[in-house]
Every structure is written in C-alpha cells, then in structure tokens.
C-alpha cells in the first residue's frame, strides 16, 4: 500500500497508549488458556509412535545461518473482509479449521467456554453448518492437518497438554486416536503442504519448544529444524518452500520477531521485527501472500490483517469487522474464512468472515 509507512507509524502511536483496537501486525490463543495449561501432562496411554531418525540441525548454527532468499510471499495489497450470514451454533475459539473440498471441518476448541470434542462441517457457499462427528478427546489449543484422506488433530489439551493424535474421517464420523506426539504439546501451530505437516513450537513441561516436527501420517515424527526462539501462541504458515513464524510468547512475554525456516536445509533465522509484540494471531496464505489475522498486542485485541513480505516486513492490508484473537482460518478456493475467535473483551465469537483479495476493508 502507498501509505504503508504512515499506517504503521499510526499503529505504533496507538499501541504506545495501550488503547484497545490498535493496529499492529499479527493460529491454530488467548490469555485464558495460559493459566489453564500452565501445568503440562501426558495424554492417555496409546500405542507409542515410531520415531524416525532425528537428523536435527545444530541449534546454534540454525540461529546464526541466514535463510536463503526465495520468491517468498506474494503481492496482495488489499483484503476485503465480509461477515457471512451463517453463524456457528455456539460461540467458539481456538478451533482447528481444515479445508475439505468446498467445506471446512471445525474440530474441538473452546465452545461457549468449555473444551469441546465436537466436529462441525461448515459450507460457506451454502450457508450451512452442522454437526458431523466427535473427537475421542475434547481439546483446544491444538493444531491440525489433512493427511492421507483423514483430518488429524495433534496435541492440545484441557487442563494440561496432551500428546494424542486424533483422526476423523473427512466425510465426518467418530474419531480415533492413531498416534502420539513425541511429548505432550499445546499452544503450537501446524502448517501443512498437503503431504507433510509441520508442528511448530508450542508449550510442554513448563517451557516453550524450539523444535519443528514433520509427519506424513500423524504416527511417525522427526525433527527438521529448530526455531531461533521457542514460542507458543505464534502464527505460522508455509510460503515459498519456507516456514514463517510470526510473533508468539516466550517466557510469558510477547515477542515481535518474524522467524523463517528453510525447510530444505533446516536453517532458521530472525528475518524481521514487527512494530509491536504480537501473539494469539493466525497466519494463512492467500494468492501466494502470507497474511496474519487479528491477535493480541499488549493486552489489546486487534482487527488488523497484515501482509508479511519476502523480507519479513509487515504491511497493513485490511481489517476484520471486529477485533479478535485466536481465530481459526482456512482457505477454500480463492477466499480464506476466519471462524470464531475471542472478541475485544475475551468473549468467544460465532461469526464467519470471508477474506478476499480486493480493496482493503476500512477500520470498523
């Protein structure tokens, strides 16, 4: 956008006052969960995962090796946000949203304030949402991916972090536990290219995690990289052969870093900094562009939709209809859909918002 610098400067001034609704750069999380998940523990016993050889890069090398340039995020300069008529049956946040054909599967989350095992099918074009299955275990603050024709929900938890990998048929139905993570994990992000899912950061045993795990089936995992800084509640997505990790929390403090992991080499680097610290935002990729949606900064919920370019620099490209954090976002066709989340006072939302390339939505 031509007035990008003016907008960023304006957001810095708003953030300096701590005023709610400020604009800063930005899955699949609120402050309410931090206390609930402070004590991590394992999930129920299941058949142990087969661990592939780690091949873990040296963390110190990863922290100092610059990431190789790639084509990177694309040229979207404006996002139009439209609230749809369809609504969730009950307000929900911290949900896993996965695209399946022309529908979205919505799995688990906090539903009306309670950790849920529900599976919903949302048809944005048809304007319908319906129950379509159940997870074996209620969970929130989890990540998910569609692999091998099944919807997988990895980790999360209720009062403590869990290591289960839950599988649900993409057509709906009862879920099963098919494996387990190498350790209990919550507050992480899962980014997928359709064949491999990457589990990024998160929280376990009292600390943020640096390892990035890869799996093609939800049963076998191996370490492919380490983040420069371990984070929970970050936003992450795959663009241009790289994993981008935006913001998050470390040691209970929000961070402003943009980390990039080259998945071909495992090299990780901090490639940029946000104008202000950010957590509980959600990342997605629309038309080749990395977008960061909503989030929290210094106690304020955000309505900003930001683009992160190939250098790690942010630019404001639109606004949500209302400030929100912990929004579930997934792409269907030429649009992304932002589902639920937590509003400006921490209350859960039932809204479904369509995000498309076009003129930027004005601030509400």
Helix/strand class: mainly beta
Amount of helix:
under 10%
Number of helices: 3
- The value of Rg in angstroms is 18 Å
Strand order of the largest sheet: 3-4-7-8-12
Strand fraction equals 35-45%
Low-confidence stretches: 1-72
Tell the overall outline: globular
Rounded to the nearest angstrom, the distance between the terminal CA atoms is 19 Å
How many E strands?
A: 33
Biggest pleated-sheet summary: 5 strands, mixed
Mean pLDDT: 84
Notes on the structure:
The radius of gyration is 18 Å and the shape is globular. 7% of the residues lie in helices and 44% in strands. The protein has a 5-stranded mixed β-sheet, with no helix packed on it. By secondary structure, it is mostly beta strands.
In brief, what are we looking at here?
This protein is mainly beta. The chain has three helices and 33 strands. The strands form nine sheets. Strands 3-4-7-8-12 form a five-stranded mixed β-sheet, with no helix packed on it. Strands 20, 21, 22, 23 and 24 form a five-stranded antiparallel β-sheet that branches. Strands 1-33-32-31 form a four-stranded antiparallel β-sheet, with no helix packed on it.
């Amino acid at each position: 956008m031509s007035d990008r610098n003016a907008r960023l400067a304006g957001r810095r001034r708003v953030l300096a006052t701590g005023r709610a609704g400020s604009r800063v750069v930005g899955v699949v999380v609120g402050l309410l969960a931090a206390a609930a998940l402070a004590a991590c523990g394992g999930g129920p016993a299941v058949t142990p995962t087969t661990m592939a050889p780690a091949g873990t890069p040296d963390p110190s090398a990863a922290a100092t090796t610059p990431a190789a340039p790639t084509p990177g995020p694309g040229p979207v300069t404006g996002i139009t946000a439209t609230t749809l008529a369809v609504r969730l049956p009950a307000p929900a946040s911290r949900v896993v949203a996965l695209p399946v054909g022309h529908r979205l599967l919505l799995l688990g989350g906090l539903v009306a304030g309670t950790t849920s095992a529900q599976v919903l099918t949302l048809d944005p074009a048809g304007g319908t949402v319906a129950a379509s299955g159940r997870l074996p275990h209620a969970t929130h603050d989890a990540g998910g991916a569609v692999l091998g024709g099944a919807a997988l929900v990895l980790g999360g938890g209720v009062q403590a972090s869990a290591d289960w990998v839950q599988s649900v048929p993409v057509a709906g139905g009862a879920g099963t536990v098919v494996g387990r993570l190498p350790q209990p994990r919550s507050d992480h992000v899962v980014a997928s290219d359709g064949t491999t899912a990457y589990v990024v950061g998160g929280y376990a045993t009292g600390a943020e995690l640096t390892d990035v795990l890869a799996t093609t089936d939800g049963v076998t995992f191996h370490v492919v990289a380490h983040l420069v800084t371990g984070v929970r509640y970050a936003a992450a997505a795959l663009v241009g052969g790289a994993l981008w990790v935006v913001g998050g929390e470390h040691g209970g403090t929000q961070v402003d870093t943009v980390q990039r992991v080259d998945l071909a080499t495992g090299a990780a680097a901090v490639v940029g900094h946000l104008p202000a610290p950010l957590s509980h935002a959600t990342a997605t990729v629309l038309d080749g562009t990395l977008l960061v949606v909503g989030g929290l900064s210094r106690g304020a919920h955000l309505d900003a939709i930001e683009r992160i370019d190939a250098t790690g620099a942010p630019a404001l490209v639109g606004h949500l209809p209302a400030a929100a954090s912990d929004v579930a976002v997934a792409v269907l066709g030429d649009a992304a859909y932002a589902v639920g989340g937590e509003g400006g006072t921490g209350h859960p939302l039932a809204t479904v918002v369509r995000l498309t390339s076009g003129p930027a939505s004005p601030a509400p």
